[in-house]
Amino acid sequence: MEKCGYTHLSAGDLLRAERSSGSAQGKMIDEYIKDGNIVPVEVTVKLLLDAIRASGGQRFLIDGFPRNTNNLSGWQQVAGEELAVGGVLFFDCPEDVMELRLLERGKTSGRTDDNIESIKKRFTTYKNETTPIIAYYEHQQLTHKIDGTRDIEVVWADTQAAVGKIEATFASLAATGPAACVQVYSTNEPATSASKLADKVSAAAAARFGEGKVSVSSRSLEVGASLKAFDLDALRAFD
Question: I want to staple 162 with a disulfide (CB 3.0 to 4.6 A). Which of 17, 144, 223, 234 is the partner?
């Protein structure tokens, strides 16, 4: 926040603030957190988007989200066209180190989930639900993995380097024209079908790479016959 100009939003802090509000939703959140489970995505996404809009900022460091595939799909459906993910900071740390740190934090944090029972449940939830998210972002080449077991100063230096790479990527995209051209084809359909699909592809590309970075056009093709007539029904790509 101080060095890079980002607005920090913690999904966990927002959930805990809502939990302490005394509302019915807050009581529901409390049960999820105590059991080490992940709060329903519609609740978390709404809290995050409300905080983003209220802040008036342009760049955000969202801490502790998405936690599972439901979080990811919910975020993409609601905010995918408004906000682009520049990168993911993944602070890698083994369970034995994390357990010691969390138990030490529990001495002063006052958090109901900083106890050994909740910690073990959270580790299990992480393995089952969060590791696939890390894999997804690695596939997207957005993950910056940082060894979190080292001294704070060393971890911070690597974090600054990762943020620098993210900033450089955005700067490069902003300085160049379209990075790719995509043509959407529709067969035996009105031209409007291909056009609508092209609009969706264009919006998704703009959200992912920035406005004007991917050029999308559409075209309708007339298909006169199917190769099924020649017993090639297994070749679905030709149908």
Answer: 144
Residue 81, class by beta-carbon neighbours within 10 Å (0-12 exposed, 13-18 middle, 19+ buried)?
middle
Q: Is 4 within 8 Å of 163 (Cβ atoms)?
A: yes
Q: How far apart are the C-alpha atoms of 234 and 237, rounded to whole Å? A: 9
The residue extents of the domains of the chain are 7-175, 180-238
The hierarchical CATH code for the domain 7-175 is 3.40.50.300
List residues bridging with 91 in a β-sheet. Answer: 146
pLDDT tens digits for 149-186? Answer: 999 999 999 999 999 998 887 777 666 655 667 777 76
Fold of 180-238: Macrophage Migration Inhibitory Factor (3.30.429)
